[in-house]
């Protein structure tokens, strides 16, 4: 059996890892010119970690995790207004990782070829396979085409129609970039520090090699990116104090930072014939849900699990994959939408309420309550088969 996977992110790489071990011939195409770097820190836990365990990745994940020991909210002068220590159950369950590090860990254990600067240009399919025209002019005939190419998926557009049908814009835009600064990196230390005013949130966390990552999240009714991202950040955040006067002038050019809308993808079906979607292409939950990478790995594993049991006709497996994943994804998306006002409050009253909750979470036993509030319910069922047997 042959599969073509469009997209070399966490979902696409994880699916390729499993398929090639099940005897599939797998080829991956990726529109970027090279392995994707950058992005932001993720919280990795739950079913994604179960899948990583099955792939033997836990030792590497433990080595590359960042020891975030506290979430700390600050004012314009950098003074702490509230915060909570990351201890106990929360520290044990949640791994803070850079998205690129998790993807690299999967990538390094793959045998399948990856063709960069290439995407899907056209699709023709029949009952026995899919003929795929690639942007480099080549044609592939495969048993399965997988769109693992993110929220703006080209495969989804070709198979299901314009992306506007499926994108749910959450009224926010995000920008992330890194800079080298030993003093600021040391000052931030093992904390995630964040400053919030109505409609704007910015956070900082230290990385290895004396680097500092800056994250900017802002309300924007217009989903289109600003013409000049650096200028817009300065306009919006330049008056807020803290470390911003030092870091904003060092914002890199647009091609050296990460900027995107904050979207969810909502679909009632994830496959058409022998074309199927995985990861953010069909189930983006947004950074507010904080569960995207975990769901991406879990979804890839569930798809591979169903294909493994399907034999030579994958179409039924694609429907069962959707049935196993759909509720957990929908629940997580609802969780993410409800979490917006907690993560990035839009009014001063909500900021005060958020700070009060953080102070309560800092009390004895609060870490357990915080863990429960940050981890969506039901996602632990993804890796269990419908007959209630563990999917191993």
Can you walk me through this structure?
- The longest helix is centred in the C-terminal third of the chain and has 29 residues, at 315-343.
- The chain has helices at residues 10-21, 47-54, 58-64, 88-93, 99-107, 154-160, 182-188, 229-237, 244-247, 280-283, 292-310, 315-343, 348-361, 366-374; strands at 2-6, 25-30, 41-44, 70-74, 80-85, 95-98, 114-116, 120-126, 129-134, 139-142, 144-147, 167-180, 191-197, 200-207, 211-219, 258-265, 271-272, 275-277.
- The chain has 392 residues and is α/β, with parallel strands linked by helices.
- It has one domain: FAD/NAD(P)-binding domain (3-Layer(bba) Sandwich).
- Helix content is 37%, strand content 27%.
- It has a seven-stranded mixed beta sheet with strand order 5-4-13-14-15-12-16, sandwiched between helices. The protein has a six-stranded mixed beta sheet with strand order 7-2-1-11-18-17, sandwiched between helices. A three-stranded antiparallel beta sheet has the order 8-9-10.
- The two termini are 22 Å apart.
- It is globular and about 65 Å long.
Characterize the main sheet. Answer: 7 strands, mixed
CATH superfamily: FAD/NAD(P)-binding domain
Rg for CA atoms: 21 Å
Average pLDDT figure:
89
Structural class: alpha/beta
- Classified by CATH, the class is Alpha Beta
- Order of adjacent strands in the largest pleated sheet: 5-4-13-14-15-12-16
Low-pLDDT stretches are: 388-392
Task: State the end-to-end CA separation.
Answer: 22 Å
User: Helical percent range?
Assistant: 25-40%
